Amino acid sequence: METQVCIEIQQVSKRYKSSGEDSLTKVSLNISCGDVFGLLGPNGAGKTTLISILCGIIPPTSGQVTYFVDGNIITENERKSIIGFVPQEYAFYQELTPRQNLDYFGAMYNIPKKELEIRREELLEVLGLAKSADKKVGTFSGGMKRRVNLAIGIIHNPEILFLDEPTVGVDVQSRNAIIRYLQQINKAGTTIIYTSHHMSEAEEFCKHIALIDHGKVIAKGELAGLKAENQVSDLQSLFINLTGEEYRD
Ligand SMILES: Nc1ncnc2c1ncn2[C@@H]1O[C@H](COP(=O)(O)OP(=O)(O)OP(=O)(O)O)[C@@H](O)[C@H]1O
User: Fold this and answer.
1) Phi-psi domain of 97 (left: phi exceeds 0; alpha: psi -120 through 50; beta: other)
2) Domain assignment of residue 28, yes or no
3) Which one of 45, 97, 98, 242 is separated from 19 by 20 to 30 angstroms, measured CA to CA?
4) Signal peptide position in this chain (predicted)?
5) How far is CA 186 from CA 42, 182, 193, 218, in A?
């Protein structure tokens, strides 16, 4: 069965006002519905910039991003209700509990009260937060905070989910819980676009990747095919082969 494109990125460039150079240069990618798409690259490559443009947080300097549902182009407003974003930074209120945070963000999406309660309790349970649901998030470990961040990003059950380094700084247990849950929702139909510096995690999780360096796409496609083309057995070797050993600023 032919997969449908859900996001078409055409010649997207970005130059921040305060910067003398492009953070992204003519990035073109197609992301298919139902995919787990990894945006990978060294520090400063432009991954967060691209995710921010795709989510509509910042505008591109030039180029175009088009969203499709069932093959039809959707408007920017329609896009807002079908996407979820889990940012690198914690996007919750530290002085509130997970339950209160989820109620707050759920209300912002206008989720009806009863529905929100059910969804909230389901997420608290599945992400291992139920026991601490009434404690202030500010007192939590890094892993628990990451799981709260994730729960908030998906409270409205988005069709397309963006995650910017969702497992950074967490232990193996929390990492596994997060990835397992993401695999589960992907199986149920959610398209996932994700960034990570954790190559073995990305290798296990992603179906397709784009490797970005210095704002340009230097490789894209199905992971297995890219490894075969470059005659390497794992993603880390592919990454080093294509981006080199040199430090990035
Ligand atoms: N608000 C901004 N103003 C000016 N330059 C910026 C801004 N945000 C990012 N940049 C620059 O754009 C480039 C790409 O940054 P970006 O954060 O998108 O990279 P990244 O791949 O997400 O990096 P990391 O893996 O370190 O998170 C970098 O050179 C960065 O310094």
Assistant:
1) beta
2) yes
3) 242
4) none
5) 26, 6, 11, 26
> Average pLDDT for consecutive 10-residue bins of the chain (249 residues)?
87 96 98 97 96 96 96 92 94 97 96 97 94 98 94 96 92 90 96 95 95 96 94 94 84
Q: Is residue 249 part of a domain?
A: no
Tell me whether residue 13 is in a domain. yes
Asked, for residue 248, whether it belongs to a domain, the answer is no
Nearest-CA residue for ligand 1 atom 23 is 44
Question: Helix H segments across 39-97?
Answer: 47-54, 76-82
Q: How many residues does the chain have?
A: 249
Ligand 1 site, residue 52, Cβ cutoff 6 A: no
Ligand 1: residue whose CA is nearest its atom 29? 44
- Residue 179: give its domain's CATH number: 3.40.50.300
Ligand 1 pocket test, pick from 12, 48, 247 with the greatest ligand atom count within 8 Å of Cβ, gives 48
- For residues 164 and 47, the answer to whether their CB atoms sit within 8 Å is yes
ipTM surpassing 0.95, yes or no? yes
From ligand 1's centre to the CA of 61, what distance in Å?
15
Closest CA to 165 of 51, 249, 53, 87: 87
CA angle at 236 for the pair 127 and 86, rounded to the nearest 5°: 30
Q: Is any ligand 1 atom within 6 A of the Cβ of residue 14?
A: no
